[in-house]
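Per your request, structure below.
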């Protein structure tokens, strides 16, 4: 049994590059869809970018949880923080008639940066 554990521990590192490659490939395949601007994205580029970045953070959190870099509890807490950023963005935009002011965009960006730093690569 000891040799089985040792063998499985050696092979555990081989899955991470494969999974990272699959994640990168899926991002490249979906990039043209994300770049196709809808009328809403054209009218609200800052909001669209906040949403796109929040979606990317969710993907990174899910990947980190899948690889074991984050505990399920920590992943849930980070996903909650991402949801709070989305909610705050919506509240701020409604107060401005549907758009974000530059200072609001930068504040949301700093919040997303803080979440991003907590996710291990």
């Amino acid at each position: 049994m000891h040799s089985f554990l040792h063998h499985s521990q050696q092979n555990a590192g081989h899955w991470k590059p494969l999974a990272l490659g699959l994640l990168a490939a899926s991002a490249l395949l979906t990039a043209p869809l994300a770049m196709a601007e809808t009328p809403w994205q054209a009218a609200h580029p800052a909001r669209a970018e906040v949403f796109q970045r929040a979606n990317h953070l969710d993907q990174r959190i899910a990947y980190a949880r899948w690889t074991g870099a984050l505990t399920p509890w920590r992943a849930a807490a980070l996903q909650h923080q991402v949801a709070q950023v989305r909610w705050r963005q919506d509240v701020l935009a409604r107060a401005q008639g549907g758009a974000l002011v530059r200072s609001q965009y930068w504040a949301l960006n700093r919040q997303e940066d803080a979440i991003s730093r907590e996710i291990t690569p």
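Residues 61 and 75 are 6 Å apart (CA to CA).

Regards,
D.
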